[in-house]
Amino acid sequence: MTLITGLDHVLLEMPAGGEPAARAFYSGLLGLQEVPKPADLQARGGVWFALPDGRQVHLGVTPDFVPRLKGHPALRCRNLAAFAAHCAAQGVPTRADAEGGVPRVFLHDPFGNRIEVLEG
């Protein structure tokens, strides 16, 4: 019997006051739409973004923030070369990788969290 039916969201951490930088990166660079947080969670800070498939990426404020350098979400794009070129044009460095036969790039959000993007 399968108890888990899917993935709802991923939570990444950020320092207090990082909402403008999160919006610039996740909405401005990655093109994700911001979604409102429930009213009872707004006082905590942070910002949420919707993925096209209905899942979400949440950025939550964490005291004594430390970026995630290994653990990361893996996002999909339609054209990896175009995505990497878009990042380069915006001054956001990416690192290409094809380990395991999967072409992908790695980049970091404004807080240093690792993000993987692969084509598919």
Question: What can be said about this structure in brief?
Answer:
With about 120 residues, the chain is α/β, with parallel strands linked by helices.
What would your notes on this structure say?
The protein is of the alpha/beta class and 120 residues long. It has one domain (9-119): 2,3-Dihydroxybiphenyl 1,2-Dioxygenase, domain 1. It contains two helices and eight strands. The chain has helices at residues 19-29, 80-89; strands at residues 9-14, 33-35, 47-50, 56-61, 74-77, 95-97, 104-108, 114-119.
Corresponding CATH architecture:
Roll
Characterize the largest beta sheet: strand count, sense, and whether it forms a barrel: 4 strands, mixed
CATH superfamily descriptor: 2,3-Dihydroxybiphenyl 1,2-Dioxygenase, domain 1
Flag low-confidence runs. none
Measured between the Cα atoms of the first and last residue, the distance is: 29 Å
Please report the first level of CATH classification, the CATH class. Alpha Beta
Radius of gyration: 15 Å
State the helical fraction.
10-25%
- What is the arithmetic mean of pLDDT? 96
Query: Helix- and strand-based class?
Result: alpha/beta
* Global outline: globular
